[in-house]
Structures are given as structure tokens and as C-alpha cells.
Amino acid sequence: MSFTDTLPLLALALLLEAALGYPQGLYARIGHPVTWLGALIAKLDHALNSEAASFALRKIAGVAALALLLAVALATALVLAWLCGRLGPLGLLPLALLASTLLAQRSLHEHVARVAQGLENGGLAGGRKAVSMIVGRNPDTLDEAGVARAAIESLSENFSDGIVAPAFWLGVGGLPGIALYKAINTADSMIGHKTPRHLAFGWASARLDDIVNLPASRLTALLLIAAAALDGQASATSAWRAVGHDARRHRSPNAGWPEAAMAGALGLRLAGPRTYGAVTVNDSWMGDGRAEATAADIRRALRLYRTACLLLWGLAVGGAAAWLST
């Protein structure tokens, strides 16, 4: 599969997902591809991750589990892509619909917007309830500014690994490419944690997720900087400076890039010390602006996000047109 095939597919998938999302009725009936992947990961974790085994053996078991997960995801995607290919040019639409289920532009916007609505309509309690649906940190430790920062940080990071990264791998490898990425990313979210149970078993998933997200995290930062340049209430210069100064100081090799870009663009400070359950993570601050974020800042971040999504779609359309004209 060449870029001549994958870039039109990417452009159409992005457009369809932004317009339609994933229907709630369909989710209620059959679930979602990510929930299917999650169910398989949970079964592999239960079957292969024996707490009686040595650290080395659990590490090997984690590699085997990841390999099996990727094999299932790849085989399924190849079969579906082949079936769509049998339809000739008409197969692009069902293929794009399938790929769109692995993107999250619309749902991410809706979830983050609910946090702004929660703060605006329900104060701190409303904000905490809404933000608890999208972040893993303890919402009871957050004041209103902490709730707003958490929502903006989630928007920034998930723009990278929920939209730009799957779009990147869709553009590179078509439906198999995006399916493999989502399998890796879902495995990391479920077992890629430094807990006693998953430190060894989830090692391969966490390391591979870091690698496959590396190009997209940098691209996401560039998209947010470009979006800031088009936004009269954001600063592309500050976004660029924050990325250069702070991105590599984040404890994650990838999350710092979009978070620093968003922080600089909006004149905020993001990340910093955070509490997950009863554990406090002393991370570096991204950006040198104010830490007192508000619901209005969430709205500004969402506007920047929408512009960046349009720029991503424009890149896909422009790339497709360029490849088709050669």
C-alpha cells in the first residue's frame, strides 16, 4: 500500500470521524474496537502474568502477550482491508469508516468540553466529576485551577496519542498501520504501568508505545504552534519557546511536546506536581505562564485544538493531492 492509497484514506477517515464520531447506539450494542482490544489484553494478562514467576519470565511473557495481540490486530486489519479492496474504488468509503473508529477527534472534544461546562455550571464539584472521566489523577486533590489544567493537559496529550499518532500510522500503513498502533497504545494504557503487577509484564508495551508515539508527539507540537499562529488569542512564539525549553524535561518522552506547546500558546503552566491515587508525581512544569487556569482557558484550548485538527486534515488532503498528481 502506497501513500497514493493511504493519504486519501486518512483524509476521508478524519472527516468522517469529525462529522459522525462513534455512534452511542453502536457502542451499546457491540462495543468499540478499543474495548475489544482491551478485553483481549485483560485475558492475556490473566493467563500469562503469573505473580509466582520471576521478573525475567514475566518480562518474556509480556513480550509474548504483546506479540500475540499485534498478530491478532494485524490479521484482522489485513482481512478487512482485503475485503474492502474487493469493492474497487468504492471500497474506500467502508475502509475509511473502519479507520475512523480508531480516531477520537469528536469524543475528545466532547469530554474536555464537559469539564468546562462542569466548572461553569457546577463549580468545583462539577469540574471534579467531569475531569475524573478523562484523567487518572485523584480529583479530590484538585482545586478549580487544577481541574482546568488537568483537562487542558489531557486534551494536549490525547490530541497526540488519540488523533495525531493514529492518523500518522494510518497515513504510513493504512488500516493495518492504525490497528497496530491502537493495539500498542491500548496495551500501554492497561499494562504499561510501573506497578508490582505490571512492571515486568508491561515493559515491552510501555517501551514500544514510547517509540511509536515519538514522531506524532513532535508533529502535534508543530500543529499546535501553527494553530497558535492563526489564533488571535494565542502565541506561537511562546509555544515554540516552551517546547524548546520544557518538552524534554517531562517525565514522559512524548507527552511534554504537546503539553509544552499548549502551555506556551495559552500563557499557562501545565504538568508540574500531580497526585495519582495517593502517589504524588513531582514532574517539571511545562511553560512559564500562570498556573491559575480557568474554564475560559479550557475553551481557548479547545479552539486551538479545533484549528490544529483542521491543519492535520489539510496536511492529509494536501499530501493526497500531491501524491495523486505525480
How would you characterize this protein structure?
- With 326 residues, this protein is mainly alpha-helical.
- It has one domain.
- Strand 2 and strand 3 form a beta hairpin.
- The protein is globular, with a radius of gyration of 20 Å.
- The protein starts with a helix and ends with a helix.
Order of helices and strands: HHHHHHHHHHEEEEH
Helix proportion: over 70%
- Give the termini separation: 16 Å
Average residue-wise pLDDT = 94
Poorly predicted runs: none
Shape: globular
Strand content: under 5%
Q: Order of strands across the biggest sheet?
A: 1-4
Number of domains: 1
Radius of gyration: 20 Å
Total strand count, please? Answer: 4
Largest sheet: 2 strands, antiparallel
Give the structural class: mainly alpha
Helix count, per DSSP?
11
Question: Brief overview, please?
Answer:
This protein is mostly helical and 326 residues long.
Chain-wise SSE layout:
Elements: H1 3-20, H2 24-30, H3 33-48, H4 55-85, H5 92-100, H6 105-131, H7 144-191, H8 203-230, H9 236-246, H10 256-266, E1 270-271, E2 274-276, E3 279-281, E4 285-286, H11 295-325
Antiparallel strand pairs: 1-4, 2-3
Helix pairs in contact: 1-5, 1-7, 1-11, 3-4, 3-7, 4-7, 5-7, 6-7, 6-11, 7-8, 7-10, 7-11, 8-9, 8-10, 8-11, 9-10
